[in-house]
## 1
Amino acid sequence: MKCALCGGNMKAGRTTVTIDRADVGLLVIRDVKARICQQCGEEWLSDKTAAQLEAIVQRAKRQKAQIEVVAMG
């Protein structure tokens, strides 16, 4: 798979996603599966991973978390 931004090679890896929203607070989600460009470093998430992140955001919103660090593992 090639990077849509620079044409570099994409490799499976893990990343950390940080979400800072007024309605949720600060979320740090570690160990997130991503495809990472070996040339420019751009990270791409699958639809499934994005849906999992959205579920974490909604849970944090319901719990009224201000700061939360979780691992997807």
## 2
Amino acid sequence: MSPRVLIIILCYNGVADTLACLESLQRVEYPSFDLLVLDNASSDGTPETVRAQFPQVTVIENGANLGFAAGNNVGLRYALRHGYDYALLLNNDTEVAPDFLTRLIEIAESDPTIGAVGPTITYYERPDLIWSAGGMIDWKRGVAVMRTNEVDTGQYCEPADVDFVTGCALLVKRAALERAGVLDERFFMYFEETEWCVRIRRAGFRILHVPQSRVLHKIPLNARFDKEYLAYYMTRNRLLFLRATGAPLRTWLDVLLLQDLRTYLSLMLRPKWRTRSGRTGMRHAWIDFWHGRFGKWEMT
């Protein structure tokens, strides 16, 4: 009997992407999975549209924008309550290959010490260009290094251990979920799945990248990451990641003095950077971190 899988799709608007994702999941070959759409208070009619076009899909309305961590935790707790063997986090702006889930389950079931697995994720616009093939954590510098923006030439041909896989498409085993717990909701978004993977590994489980499993991600090829809210969450949450994982003092000094301070000074002093909006976000991030203010950034 095939293990039961709950596929969790978290939405905050983007109804067209969600419908396309669900359509691709209708072609999945794996015999034992259910779909759960979680809606973070979309304003584009996502819950009603999904119910009308995919009546077999369970829809839960969270009632507010809970962010990535708390929003997905609704689904993870649902999976635990309803006895699923696996839970799969899947971004709503993805489309999947018909065999993607079969490939993931085959590897996850091959060893009881495997706690989580993730596919090769490529750009929707460039299926030959890798967006994520898992990643490693550089503990000296306190950074998570994702294998990204590589032309896919078959360099990742066998399943391999990694430090983390992205929450864009992440399959977690029930035993790992029970032992490591759910996502840390203090993060709201960004770094939460990386910290989660650290907990899963420290709970005694392996994490693998499965290159035979394929997912397309509709992130733009020229996506920019200089928005103020991104600067805020990336800055604050990296510090929270260091605290949550018990990073040593030398890592803190490297991040604060050599990386964050250098970035901030560049935003302040270099003419070509002065128009960018990250300065305020970084400043608020430092203040909120040291005052213990986490979760959603209440911009004032």
## 3
Amino acid sequence: MPEKLPDKTVFSLSEVARSIQRTLAERYKSSYWIKAEMNKLNYYSHSGHCYPELVEKRDGQVIAEMRSILWKADYQRINQRFVEIAKEPLKNGITILIQASINYDPLYGLSLRIIDIDPAYSLGELEREKRASIDRLKQEGIFHANKQRPFPLVPKRLAIISVETSKGYADFLKIIGSNPWGYRFELSLFPALLQGDKSVVSIINQLNEISATHQRYDVVAIIRGGGGDVGLSSYNHYQLAATIARFPIPVLTGIGHSTNETVSEMVAYQNAITPSELADFLIQCYHRFSAPLLRAQQVIVNQSNQLLHNHRQQLTNAARYFRLSSINLIQHQHHAITHLTAQLQRSFAAHARHQRQELYYLRQRLPVVIRTILRNSQAELSAANNSLRLLDPQKVLNRGYSITRINGRALKTTDSVKKGDTVQTVLASGAISSTITEIKHGSYE
């Protein structure tokens, strides 16, 4: 009962709580189908109960939030149906349609007791979100953008977004690393969450990191293990698909499922159903490059062998022709030498006879010629001796000439002396010294 005070009535907290409990129980007598996003399942393995955290979002913002209860027996039944229909168990981050009753407990507060969950609705909601993402990407004209990126002839440098412990990633590495042709790939792992409500942001962050240095890579590969449509719902998210569509280099996906393609796979350059199939695709790229290369190599080898054979045959023929030509040339030159030898012998004999005749003639004429030469030489010597006697300096001085010297050198011009110089004059009978007192330039008169 409420406590009465002079000016007010006071209720205890439990009384208010029980009043709310009675009111809600009377108002909400039946169960209701409610659409919400299961933000967290909150499964407790020791009890088997779940306490899902339900939210409603608008434009990315939470506008309503409520606790709920899913008892062990109901959870096992519902989870089994999810596995059968959606191909995977209940998990965080999916939109669900629940049948629930509204409960209020004075101690634990307001909550929804989940009686059933419709897995078909979750699948339909995923399909609706998928369709909305596809329509938006097409309206923006980027749905086929990544497929138009130039693809390298040999995709050697791979930026891989995956979980290092993923079985799908392990299968991919096994096929790539042990291919029997010895093809070598350069792998760079960028770890990311690949499922759940945080996977979209995680994958986008890694794509942005790769994009900053995309020149280092040929392609990007997104790899995860298998899963059903619910677990793959993040790959229908518009923001993730748009990031892939706009990515500056080709994006390849191998996210391991055999159901309908997700939007991210649709916009990627190449989609493989499994990581193993993606590894095979990359190896086939090497095949498409190496097969023509090997054929070209064989063509070069065959044509080189044929060319060598042809040239070897031509060389053999040329050697045979050269040998025969050399023999003929040697024989011809031998005949020519023999003929020239005979001619030279005849010419030498004739020349020898002519020389003997000239020698005999010279022997007959030599005394007369020598006497004539001696007489002429004596006459020339006598004339030269007379000329030399006439040029004797003493005889020249005797004819009235003199020699003037300055400093021991003969004086030839007036430019070689100046007033006051002392000169020596040599005469036929002696010499005199003179001092220059006057100099007259010009010719002598």
